[in-house]
Design a protein that fits this description.
mainly beta; Thiol Ester Dehydrase, Chain A; Type Iii Antifreeze Protein Isoform Hplc 12; SH3 type barrels; seven-stranded antiparallel β-sheet; five-stranded mixed beta barrel; 1 helix; 5% helix
């Protein structure tokens, strides 16, 4: 049986009872376990170890990744081998941690401004080890959104390339709502900006021709001061 010990940043494996397991296998297994990696999405390959042992039965193996935070991509490791709590040998090596993610990609090319629905997308797995840009993975992000630019079929989509569909469109007709005392006055206007509920935009009153600012209170409705 194996048990984990975490001490001063080291990943430790008590290797008694693991006959037939190489040092490379032990290092990869313990990196996976220590950082809680999902084996379906993350792989750990040992690129080099010095020394390499074919069988670590009876050894305690301590591994320390030489990186700040969670290892990702190629990184160096330090290794110490103990037998009966006595240091037997020190070594070094390198591992390659590959991270994958299931992302939403367009099933067909989606034009700029087109409303997005889950039916327009399919799932594709990518190696995202070196990626830093947030990518579209959750169908919930599609609700009420449109393409900010053309989305090519089969390619990953950065979240920056989609946007909320405005509640008011630039050039669209809106209802201007104002109050005088207990009276509510309504008029037709034209939005001079895109906007969402709660945002302030410029609108032109179609009756007076004046440009005023107002707050979008509902799709197609703008509250203005009279």
């Amino acid at each position: 049986m194996r048990r984990m010990i975490v001490a001063v940043g080291w990943v430790c494996l008590l290797a008694a009872g693991v006959q037939g397991k190489s040092l490379s296998q032990a290092v990869a297994d313990q990196i996976m376990a220590e950082y809680g990696f999902d084996s379906a999405l993350v792989t750990v390959a040992v690129a080099r170890l010095d020394p390499e042992l074919a069988d670590i039965a009876g050894y305690e193996v301590k591994v320390l990744p030489q990186t700040a935070g969670t290892p990702r991509g190629r990184c160096a490791v330090r290794i110490e081998l103990y037998r009966q709590e006595e240091l037997v040998q020190r070594g070094t090596g390198s591992i390659d941690v590959r991270v994958h993610a299931d992302l939403l990609v367009p099933a067909r090319t989606i034009n700029r401004g087109e409303a997005l629905t889950p039916e327009l997308f399919t799932v594709k797995r990518f190696d995202v080890t070196s990626w830093t840009e947030p990518m579209l993975a959750d169908p919930a992000h599609l609700s009420g959104c449109r393409a900010k630019s053309t989305l090519v079929a089969g390619r990953q989509v950065g979240l920056a390339r989609i946007e909320r569909i405005p509640d008011v469109l630039n050039g669209g007709t809106v209802t201007l709502v104002g109050t005088v005392g207990v009276l509510e006055i309504r008029a037709k206007g034209v939005a001079l900006q895109n906007g969402a509920v709660g945002e302030t935009i410029a609108v032109r009153n179609l009756d007076s021709g004046k440009v005023v600012s107002g707050i979008i209170t509902a799709p197609g409705a703008v509250t203005v001061a009279l």
